């Protein structure tokens, strides 16, 4: 299988902060790799190296075998990144057409991509007048119109409602079938569990763990304790053995490697606890557990 992204020994320092400390990463054609990790792990720094905004230091970044700091290589890349933005004074159709031309495609390539992303009716609108979700779809249209070999998506579904999110992943699945590789960062871990072939967990500039979502979950004996409780989130977070905490409707989900001890404390502290159950860890709990252990 052709490799569309190859990162070897990526390092980056901001002053005294070692943001990346020797990261290796590959994405094959058609593959979706999710880059996960806590705030400050180095995800944005790595993404910026992959899209050519930052030099690779003494490491190496190759997109389809080329250096992403070179314009010809960047044409093979599609990027959706909140920070990139676009000139708000231009109209939707002008922006998508401009992106097509920059990628070496005919102007006519813009129409079908705008239709694919439900932007046709908004073609004459200024980008500044779009809602957050519409801007997100515009960014994706601009990324896809060049028919990229590698798509780099940084929090791509932030601001999208549920139908738009579903449509987004559907469009991506079609592109992947045609061989486009995807590097994705997201804080919605359960989403990566559904869409990614592989997950790479980054922490303090290093790769902590990598594998399919199922492999990562299987590496840990962790469990998820789910309940309805009157205890506050701060108290729950401080309970012994809790490695992750998430609310899910009226329930809380506590990731732990010692479910029996946690259950005893929970029941003692909240006699009104209801709907209690214990499940295997999901990807979210597994990633939190791996980070807590600093597992390699
Ligand atoms: N421009 C900068 N100047 C100085 N330090 C920086 C700069 N950008 C990032 N850092 C530091 O580098 C480290 C990695 O940051 P980075 O933004 O890559 O992490 P991240 O994984 O994307 O985090 P988040 O999930 O919060 O977006 C952090 O310690 C951060 O404080």
UniProtKB/TrEMBL annotation:
Where it sits in the cell: the answer is: Cell membrane
Topology in the lipid bilayer is annotated as: Peripheral membrane protein
Q: Identify the InterPro entries for this entry.
A: AAA+_ATPase (IPR003593), ABC_transporter-like_ATP-bd (IPR003439), ABC_transporter-like_CS (IPR017871), ABC_transporter_ATP-binding (IPR050763), P-loop_NTPase (IPR027417)
Cite a single GO MF annotation: ATP binding
Q: What are the record's GO terms for cellular component?
A: plasma membrane
Q: Has keyword Nucleotide-binding?
A: yes
Q: What is this protein called?
A: ABC-2 type transport system ATP-binding protein
Please name the source species. Answer: Lentzea albida
């Amino acid at each position: 299988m052709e490799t569309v992204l190859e990162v070897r020994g990526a390092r980056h320092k901001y002053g005294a902060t070692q943001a990346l400390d020797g990261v290796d990463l590959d994405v094959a054609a058609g593959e979706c790799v999710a880059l996960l990790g806590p705030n400050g792990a180095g995800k944005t720094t790595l993404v910026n190296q992959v899209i050519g905004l930052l030099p690779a230091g003494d490491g190496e970044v190759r997109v389809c075998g080329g250096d992403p700091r070179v314009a010809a290589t960047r044409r093979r890349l599609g990027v959706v990144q909140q920070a990139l933005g676009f000139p708000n004074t231009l109209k939707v159709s002008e922006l998508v057409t401009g992106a097509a031309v920059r990628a070496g495609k005919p102007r006519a390539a813009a129409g079908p991509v705008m239709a694919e992303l439900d932007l046709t009716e908004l073609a004459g609108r200024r980008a500044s007048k779009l809602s957050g979700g519409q801007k997100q779809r515009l960014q994706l249209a601009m990324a896809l119109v060049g028919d990229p070999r590698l798509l780099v998506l940084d929090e791509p579904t932030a601001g999208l409602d549920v139908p738009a999110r579903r449509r987004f992943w559907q469009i991506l699945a079609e592109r992947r079938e045609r061989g486009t590789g995807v590097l994705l960062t997201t804080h919605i871990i359960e989403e990566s569990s559904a869409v990614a072939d592989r997950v790479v967990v980054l922490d303090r500039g290093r790769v902590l763990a990598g594998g399919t979502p199922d492999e990562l979950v299987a590496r840990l004996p962790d469990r998820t304790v789910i309940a309805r409780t009157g205890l506050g989130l701060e108290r729950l977070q401080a309970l012994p053995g809790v490695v992750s905490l998430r609310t899910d409707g009226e329930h809380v989900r506590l990731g732990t490697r010692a479910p029996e001890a946690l259950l005893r404390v929970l029941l003692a502290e909240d006699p009104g606890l209801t709907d209690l159950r214990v499940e295997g860890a999901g990807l979210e709990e597994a990633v939190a557990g791996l980070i807590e252990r600093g597992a390699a």
